[in-house]
Amino acid sequence: MTDYLRSDVDEHSHIGVGKKGKVDTVTEIPGSFGKIPVVDLSNMGSPSIEERKAVAKAICDACTKVGFFYIKNHGVPQELVDGAFVEARRFFHELSEDQKMELVNSKNPNFYGYAPIRTDPMRSARHMKHLFESVNFGYEPQFDDAAVGTEDNGASFWPKEEDLPDFKKNLGKYYRSVIDLSRNLLRMFALGLDLDEDFFNQFYKRPATLLKMNHYPKSIPINGGGAKEAGIEAHTDLQGFTILAQEDVKSLEVLLKDGQWVDAEPVRGAFVVNIGDSIAMWTNDLFKSTLHRVVNREGRARYSIPFCFGPDFDAVMETLPSCATADRPAKYKTITAGEYHRMRLNLIYPKDD
Ligand SMILES: O=C(O)CCC(=O)C(=O)O
Ligand SMILES: [Fe+2]
């Protein structure tokens, strides 16, 4: 059993915690779709259980075969999506470098905040190259219509109101709307896995949400000359699932069967959803956490807004009964989402950073 530190593109692997408690990889190759499926969510809130089940089945097919899918008719108004991109541009371009560095994530106990572009050749090989700039904000009950408590998941670094007026208020509208959509998707996952429709929501009372904004410039100058394409190396996401908003610049690529990288082209009005490692482990890899990467070859800047939705830190992720059989015994150790999260953050942000 290898003590893997990072997903390995050649093995189609994601990071899980094996029965012996070691970080291990899973080598299953994503299933039989040749492309990323599109799921229409129009009937997700239908009073008819049969109609809801049909949506749940389409989602679960996509999760078991690809781990990536588009959703349309998802209920998040386009003006909120467009508004969130306005705020992303304001953040990256209206704040000075110093103002952004005041919010740097290495100063935050939960690594919330700003992550600058890193081209330092001396960075240890254990780090992912960070050829983009990004910022993220954690869970706050004020953004959650279904909040049961008043505590956040650790304070985020928000820009000062005088530096970027109304930024938090404006982004908060989008935050609220994607949390709501995420809770509805959890119902579909549960239905599709033959669980009580509300099964997952009991583990998402103070969820590990992360609203991220990424900026991939059109190219990145390298010290000493030359330029590189902006992007993110092949990786899997760590949380339950991610809802990604993109504009019209194509750059996201997903690894499908036979080792083919396919573009997850932007589709106006649709989000891209992908399963993260936590739900993959919880479902005993029935749901696939699929490798993806970003390479901005388009010659213009790209912005994206991923929203990650992970279970409560104290949620105990024990292999779901409908996901283990005699032929397919449970592979993973029962672990709390928080323990797993912490383990992954320690890999992403090693102490020598
Ligand atoms: O920007 C994108 O399209 C995807 C970003 C991503 O994979 C991530 O932030 O984990
Ligand atoms: Fe990702």
UniProtKB/TrEMBL annotation:
Keywords: Iron, Metal-binding, Oxidoreductase
InterPro entries assigned: DIOX_N (IPR026992), IPNS-like_FE2OG_OXY (IPR044861), IPNS-like_sf (IPR027443), Iron_ascorbate_oxido_reductase (IPR050231), Oxoglu/Fe-dep_dioxygenase_dom (IPR005123)
Pfam families: 2OG-FeII_Oxy, DIOX_N
Domain Fe2OG dioxygenase: 206-311
The family this protein is said to belong to: Belongs to the iron/ascorbate-dependent oxidoreductase family.
PANTHER family attached to this UniProt entry: 2-OXOGLUTARATE (2OG) AND FE(II)-DEPENDENT OXYGENASE SUPERFAMILY PROTEIN-RELATED
Protein name: Fe2OG dioxygenase domain-containing protein
Organism of origin: Aspergillus pseudoustus
Lineage: Eukaryota, Fungi, Dikarya, Ascomycota, Pezizomycotina
